Amino acid sequence: MPEQAPVVYDVNVLVNVLVTDDSEFPYIAQVPSASSNPDADCLSIAFDTDDFQLYLSPHILENTTRVLAELGLSPDLIKRYLATLVDVVETSGGAIVDPPRKVFDVSDHEDNLILDLAVDVDATIVVSNDTDLTSLSPWHNRIAIMRPRDFVQCTVQTRRGR
């Protein structure tokens, strides 16, 4: 079995798992799935543990909580979702990591914090819906920054080629 690659998901990916019209939470589909929600498919990819270890930070989890609350989701749903995220992280072999601040070269402070985590865990991929962040790919010729749909398609194609 090939080594699992560390991957980081941006806050917007985690939020979209719940807030899009086609959210199926708490159901996590198998990959390749028939889901029309690529953000949810990203969570499925991490959950099945074949290729990727998911890493998140306390900052990512706190911002996910804040955004979901601002969007009016119930505290109970948010709590259950965060517990699911922690389970997916642990199942994938990843971890919740509070990285040191090292990245300061991106204009958006929040993007720097995502990249801090990616650098700290030696991630090869960051998955984000943030155009400012995806436009940096490959960041320092080292980290691919992909949109969820592209990440899912690439993963599915790679698996079919095995």
From TrEMBL:
InterPro entries (UniProt xref): PIN_dom, PIN_toxin-like
Molecular function via GO: hydrolase activity; metal ion binding; nuclease activity
Start and end residues of each PIN domain: 7-131
Transmembrane residue ranges: none
Domain of life: Bacteria
Record's keyword annotation contains Nuclease: yes
Endpoints of the signal sequence: none
Keyword line: Hydrolase, Magnesium, Metal-binding, Nuclease
Pfam families listed in its UniProt record: PIN_3
Protein name, as recorded: PIN domain-containing protein
Native source species: Leifsonia xyli subsp. cynodontis DSM 46306
